[in-house]
Amino acid sequence: MSSAEAFAKAAKTAFEDSQLITSKERATALLCIRDALQSNKAEILAANKEDLKAAQIEVDAGRMSESLLKRLDLDKGDKWDSMLQGVSDVAALPDPLGIVSYAKELDDGLELFRVSCPIGVLLVIFEARPEVVVNIAALAIKSGNSAILKGGKESNRTTLLLAQAIAAGLSQSALPATYIQTIQTRAEVSSLLALDQYIDLVIPRGSNSLVREIQNNTRIPVMGHADGICSVYLDESADIEKAVRVVVDSKTDYPSACNSTETLIVHESLLNSVWLVVGRALLEAKSARSPPSPAAIRFINTHSSHHTDSIVTESHAAAAAFCRGVDSAGTFVNASTRFADGFRYGFGTEVGISTGRIHARGPVGLEGLVIYKYMLRSTDAKGHVVGDFGAGGKQYKHANIAATLPF
Amino acid sequence: MSSAEAFAKAAKTAFEDSQLITSKERATALLCIRDALQSNKAEILAANKEDLKAAQIEVDAGRMSESLLKRLDLDKGDKWDSMLQGVSDVAALPDPLGIVSYAKELDDGLELFRVSCPIGVLLVIFEARPEVVVNIAALAIKSGNSAILKGGKESNRTTLLLAQAIAAGLSQSALPATYIQTIQTRAEVSSLLALDQYIDLVIPRGSNSLVREIQNNTRIPVMGHADGICSVYLDESADIEKAVRVVVDSKTDYPSACNSTETLIVHESLLNSVWLVVGRALLEAKSARSPPSPAAIRFINTHSSHHTDSIVTESHAAAAAFCRGVDSAGTFVNASTRFADGFRYGFGTEVGISTGRIHARGPVGLEGLVIYKYMLRSTDAKGHVVGDFGAGGKQYKHANIAATLPF
After folding, report:
1. Which residues of B touch A215 (CB under 8 A)?
2. Does some domain include residue A325?
3. Same domain for B19 and B164
4. 3 state DSSP class of B253
5. B119 vs A357: CB contact, 8 Å cut-off?
6. Residue A111 falls within a domain, yes or no?
7. Do B179 and B272 lie in a common domain?
8. Looking at CA atoms only, how far is residue B293 from chain A in angstroms?
9. CB A407 within 8 A of CB A111
10. ipTM summary value
11. Taking burial as the number of CB atoms within 10 A of a residue's CB, which of A257, B136, B190, B312 is the most buried?
């Protein structure tokens, strides 16, 4: 068995063995991990210093950007404390498991429940920031999924020690220490992508090319988190102040974020009025390209990445047509595209922003990491068989019942 | 442009152009299709006779099974009428689109809605029965997706005429005639699997090898509908009558169905009691293999296909552990695995039974063909920008609001 296969098999076994572990035990495991991280803070930050030193050499040689180096630093500002606080926050979120979304009585004494449950084994691949290991581990544990994590190679020393602390925390809990594992090489990722008997979902967070490369090399479902190409459309009824505020914020609040705006579409009637003011406001901040188009919806559907698009308008009809007609994960009215974010949406946490159209779309919270199963219970004295139904036999009732699990 | 690419592009355009078409217009389109099918009944059944003739030659030569031939026949019993009734039934189902599943006020005058919407362009590949073209076309139209359909080559003459009638029906409606297209060759399927810029979801309904072959050859998400390996576990507290009824029904009600049972697991304490009676009842019907196992949950998780598994037990604790511990789309108590079915579950229709773990699991109704988008509306006099929030600025409210769309 290859080492990748051993990882994958251990993850699947850890997942299956933890089906009966309660929500309370999961929350306790998260607090154990937080404590283990805090106990090992000195060693982890020392390893992080080593990663930073190696990265500085790469920066000096022009092989790495200064901004990537900055993202590696785990000791910057309140980063360490907010990483630990994030673990506590996830522990305190409502349990996403065991939620009944469909409940019907199919027959007297035959009850059907659709119940949320974990997906299985996640393979999560991300770049740069080492604290993502801790974030994703917390999300996986809370949502009942086991996970194999691969960070950027620049942070290998840090993520190794973070992973050891996570395993130490898990060993104090009801969950197996193999519930969260980390790998360090691309070769291991390649091997894991072939193991669809063990791995249920691949979550790549990074560039379009990373997501596409993974999609090309696995039959495992991929929940891609790639770049956004977002648009703002200034409708003919746009309010001038809203236009300026929304465009400038969408474009300049954090230009390298996936939810910042790339494309501005201006209704031609505004070219000598609103556009001049918006253009001036943008020039004072950054630059924008403006393909004016009377068919804004068609233009956006053809050219956007279906991430987030916004319209500035005072017309209810234009807003309605835009929100329904634009085929994107987020369709906004008089609001900046930068609102597309799990925390801002109120999810309490964020796995990332899915650019896929299956399972979870847009900002992904814990809900995006669960699926459901159907539980069917007969309380009839003879049990239930389909042979009793149909022509000349019983008919299905399909009556609504309380969405309360009997077990 | 290849013919496959022309199909795919036309489907995407048809999808995008129909975003604003109402639920009522979709229902009308379905009734137009039903009428067009009825008007062309004679020609369609004549083509079906040709398919049957060609198939008979294959059967006589030993190259096709008798049962496949039977499934081709569109004029058998009430098949034609129930195909048309199915279209009317789907038209009458509740609209799966526009349903709000999350509604929050992020700030005064900033409302967020998560609204169900179509996935996009579906590529549906299935085998044998020609009426599936009509079923799937109806489901796609109702759920707002455009679709490209590929049936079995044995029914090419029939499906061609069915497709023409569907297009004729669509041309009487608000939907474009290219909303539903059919293709006839494997080469076209291969070409389409490369076109992830146009096609959003592939739904193969057939053998494990069909599903796997498609997963190996596309980066488009695949919602597989493959074979099931289902289990029944007779717990030590199993009631003897329930055991006999559930096992015999699960195994023999329709042995070739994906939800019939392959594996029977018997608690060792029952070997000289319940098992003898169940075994005799099965011998009177069919045969079964019985790997007795004290660790039934582990056994099922390792060997089942995670489709549907049932326990026969009088113990509440055993039922609870089984339902939560078995990692399958259906976990049943004292009920036949044959209940795993969209109609029996009360969905009113069925796309198939998904053996995947992402997006839709188990029997798939219209809900499985939709995803959602987030609509965000600012009613503030100045619009909303994220730059106003954060340290020293505004805080997010995240208050629940009515799940009623403003447009």
Report:
1. 196, 219
2. yes
3. yes
4. coil
5. yes
6. no
7. no
8. 17
9. no
10. 0.85
11. B312
Same domain, B148 and B293: no
Interface contact flag, B383 A334, Cβ < 8 Å:
yes
The whole domain housing A247 covers: 230-346
| pTM tops 0.90, yes or no | no
Nearest to A358 among B339, B359, B376 (CB): B359
Shared domain for A140 and A168, answered yes or no, is yes
User: Does residue B247 sit in the same domain as residue B271?
Assistant: yes
Measure the CA–CA gap between A129 and A141, rounded to whole angstroms.
Answer: 20
> What is the per-residue DSSP string for A188-236?
HHHHHHT-TTT--EEEEES-HHHHHHHHHT-SS-B--B----EEEEE-T
Report the domain count for chain B: 2
B102 belongs to a structural domain: no
- pLDDT for B179-210, tens place per residue? 999 999 999 999 999 999 999 999 988 788 88
Query: Which pLDDT score is estimated for B286?
Result: 55
Q: Nearest by CB to A241, which of B112, B298, B382?
A: B382
Q: How far apart are CA A271 and CA A288, in angstroms?
A: 15
Q: What is the CATH number of the domain that holds A127?
A: 3.40.605.10
Contact A378 B335 (CB under 8 A): yes
The number of beta carbons lying within 10 Å of the beta carbon of residue B328 is 27
- Tell whether B58 and B160 lie within a shared domain: yes
The answer to whether the beta carbons of residues B157 and B50 sit under 8 Å apart is yes
Closest Cα in chain A to B399: A346
Q: Is residue B106 part of a domain?
A: no
Q: What is the pLDDT of residue B406?
A: 82
Residue B237, domain CATH = 3.40.309.10
Do B386 and A339 make contact, defined as CB atoms within 8 angstroms? yes
Based on the fold, state whether residues A139 and A250 are members of the same structural domain: no
A110 membership: H or E segment, kind and range: strand A110-118
Taking the CA of residue B153 and the nearest CA in chain A, the distance in Å comes to 26
Tell me the pLDDT band of A229, cut-offs 50, 70 and 90.
confident
Residues of B in contact with A336 (CB under 8 A): 383-387
Q: Is A249–B387 a contact, with Cβ atoms under 8 angstroms apart?
A: yes
Closest by Cβ to A221, choosing from B221, B330, B379: B221
